[in-house]
Design brief:
The protein is α+β, with helices and mostly antiparallel strands. The chain is built from four helices and five strands; from the N terminus they run αββαβαββα. Bound molecules: tetrahydrodeoxyuridine. Tetrahydrodeoxyuridine binds next to α2.
Length: 130
Amino acid sequence: MDLLEAARQVRERAWVPYSRFKVGAAIRAESGAVYQGCNVENVAYPEGTCAEAGAIAAMCAGGDYRIAEITVIADSPEPVPCCGGCRQKIAEFAGPEVRVTMATIDGKSRTVTVAELLPGVFSAAHMDRA
Ligand code: THU
């Protein structure tokens, strides 16, 4: 399945009564399977979740734990950059070379690597004392 199309389709299912800003995300796992997620807001605003988080949760629920590629789409004038929290969430399951594509519904897109998206990433190695 085309990742951009998968992200575009799931974006329509976003629950966004507060921001009215729908976001869709699609991950191709290393297995080849595609997982989709949309943002899901909550009246208690901090409880809302981003599209990327939803796609990552779907990936884990599907038994996949490595991201090969991820695409995010929104109706914005310029491709929407993943928020800081989502950058760290993506980095949990993706190597630094993995491509992250950010797109708009009117056809603009920008692709960067995970390393470009989150320079200086916090990793498990930072907890090694020995
Ligand atoms: N949002 C995402 O789902 N992903 C992003 O990369 C940027 C922001 C959502 C969160 C919230 O529901 C809405 O967009 C406005 O911030």
